[in-house]
């Protein structure tokens, strides 16, 4: 009997609870909340877009208590960002929306970040399609305006703003070569339809080769700054299986440059370890993966020793453009002198002839010349220019002497002859011809 009463009581209390919930004002939630979590593999495009978009609307409202403020040395203006727990309101076609930012730190040290986007349920379809598309489109435009390029090591989720200042203007290379590279890049990004028509993955491979300090990394930054693409660095040595490679590649965004440095070392290491991914394995894999889900991908390989690469790697479709970065030429020196000393008409300087002669006969990387020019103060007057150029002459004479003494040995970099950067475009569908 007691048992039946207890069961009855339990039933009544459950039913009452249910009725209470049903008629409580909170049950019929008018509002719906989308949770937009930060993810690294693959990245959550909506989260990344919200991060850029939200600071562009009014971040400070009467309920705001804290706001993130930052500025890096290269940024012109101070940047504002939402802090955890803060909310901001937005309106879109008469829909009122509320954004909340939440950062959670767990005892394990793991940190998660998310946005919570709340609005009236009846607008669900419009928010899902039009509003979120608006956020992503605005974010892309902001990114273009602000040139916030992300540099990310794909093997680790951390991401930093790429603030490498190199542009095609500051890179020391021949004007023809520069034009050729810029034309090739611009043409590549214009050719969505072409790649679709011929059924090829929309990607282009560049091989940058030459001695250390000749500007390979600077050229990658100039390419990224020109195209406003993010840059991802991939270390093949840390990758052991196709599935790991797949998840790493899927974590990279479209409109990005994937950089794989020192591929001659990677090849040797992969052979030594008899496991891991080789560059050719990577290229085969990418063709399959990116023909189905990748758009506007540029892959840049760098090496100090092109001669050590397997010939199969160098063929068109794999490395379409070969760019040779050489030791400093007189022409390259003019660009550096203009960047560092503000000298425009170097040909007329009495020391230029001597410098040009020394550069023709000395193996010196542009990076070394930059170091020498950096010894000067920021505000250079004519006397400082003379002193700087005299310093360069002294430095080059020393380098030449060292080079002459070492000349009995094989030169380490056969490819580092003092000719301006050489660009050879390696495929049939290119406008430019090989040099
Ligand atoms: N061609 C160049 N034009 C302008 N600056 C250059 C050039 N080459 C080198 N520099 C200067 O030297 C520095 C080092 O060059 P960078 O790292 O681009 O060379 P690298 O070829 O990538 O070298 P490594 O093979 O050692 O990685 C750059 O930050 C830049 O200041």
Automatic annotation (TrEMBL):
> What SMART domains has UniProt attached to this entry?
AAA (SM00382)
- Asked if Magnesium is a keyword of the record, the answer is yes
Q: Where is the composition biased (Acidic residues)?
A: 425-435
Catalytic activity, per the record? ATP + H2O = ADP + phosphate + H(+)
Tell me where the signal peptide lies.
none
- Gene Ontology MF, one: ATP binding
Q: Output the GO biological process annotations, alphabetical, semicolon-separated.
A: response to stress
What's the family? Belongs to the AAA ATPase family. BCS1 subfamily.
Q: What is this protein called?
A: AAA+ ATPase domain-containing protein
**Source species:** Prunus persica (Peach)
